[in-house]
Each structure stands twice: as structure tokens, then as C-alpha cells.
């Protein structure tokens, strides 16, 4: 592997539980164990770098070694964190990453601290998406 590629670690979590909650959150309350449904989850993790236009794109079905691959019927949860491969005690430049999802397609945009687009920003990322049971 060279600096122009990244290995994507992938696994299937077979004993996952899912609970549907309001988008506004749930500030407090009792445990909802009886409302949880069994499912499985697909997990992907890797590294990337935004291009000259300050974006990076990936389609989960196109990179998936897992079958069945995500079909876009469940919204993926994506976390991306800017990384820098320099000395760990150097103060890194601050960047902001914004994630957009469209089905199983993910785009990450990079911005400098001043709000302007920032090209060539390296980051690590991971995605969790509920699997679709196929009968």
C-alpha cells in the first residue's frame, strides 16, 4: 500500500440491536429494551484525502467485500476525523469535515477554520449501516 491508497477494514456485526428514536433525541427516560429489534450491522473503516475540489466520495456497494452489500435503503452513520501524519507533539491545522449521504453513497467535504473549502485534507473514517435481511 502506498500513500495513494487505503485499506478498508470491513466486518459484519451479527448480534446488533436497533431502536428507532426521534431525530430530536431522547433526553431522559426508562430503558427501552422491549422496543429493540434484532438486526445486523455492516462496519467499514479506512482513511481518505479530499481532492483538489475539497471532496472525497465513496460508494459502499462498490467497495464492499461483505454480502449482501448495503443497498441504500438504510442511512449510514458516518464519522470522519481529520488526521495528520506528522509528529504527534506538533500542533495540527484545524479542519472541519462535513458528511453528506445519499443512500449508500457518501461524500465528505473539507473546510479550513475560516470556512473556505480546503483541498487535500487527510482523514480517517468509519461507517456503520444496518444490514438488510434478504429472504
Overview of the molecule:
Strand 5 and strand 6 form a beta hairpin. The chain is globular and about 50 Å long. The chain is mainly beta and 135 residues long. 3% of the residues lie in helices and 44% in strands. It is built from one helix and seven strands; from the N terminus they run βββαββββ. The strands form two sheets. A four-stranded antiparallel β-sheet has the order 1-2-7-4, with no helix packed on it. The model has no long low-confidence stretch (mean pLDDT 87).
Which term fits the overall shape? globular
Order of helices and strands: EEEHEEEE
Q: How is the largest sheet built, in terms of strand order?
A: 1-2-7-4
Q: Quickly give the structural class.
A: mainly beta
- How can the largest sheet be summarized? 4 strands, antiparallel
Count every helix, treating DSSP H or I runs of 4 or more residues as helices: 1
In the predicted model, the low-confidence regions spanning at least 5 consecutive residues are none
Q: State the end-to-end CA separation.
A: 38 Å
Which characteristics define this entry?
135 residues, 44% strand, 4-stranded antiparallel β-sheet, 1 helix, globular, mainly beta, single chain, 3-stranded antiparallel β-sheet
Amino acid at each position: 500500500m502506498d500513500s495513494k491508497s487505503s485499506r478498508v477494514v470491513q466486518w459484519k456485526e451479527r448480534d446488533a440491536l436497533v431502536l428507532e428514536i426521534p431525530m430530536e433525541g431522547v433526553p431522559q427516560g426508562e430503558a427501552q429494551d422491549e422496543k429493540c429489534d434484532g438486526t445486523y450491522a455492516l462496519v467499514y473503516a479506512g482513511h481518505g484525502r479530499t481532492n483538489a475540489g475539497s471532496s472525497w466520495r465513496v460508494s459502499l456497494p462498490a467497495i464492499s467485500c461483505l454480502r449482501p452489500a448495503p443497498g441504500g435503503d438504510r442511512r449510514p452513520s458516518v464519522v470522519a476525523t481529520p488526521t495528520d501524519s506528522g509528529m504527534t507533539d506538533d500542533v495540527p491545522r484545524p479542519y472541519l469535515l462535513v458528511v453528506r449521504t445519499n443512500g449508500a453513497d457518501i461524500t465528505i467535504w473539507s473546510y479550513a477554520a475560516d470556512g473556505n473549502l480546503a483541498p487535500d485534507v487527510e482523514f480517517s473514517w468509519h461507517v456503520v449501516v444496518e444490514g438488510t435481511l434478504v429472504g
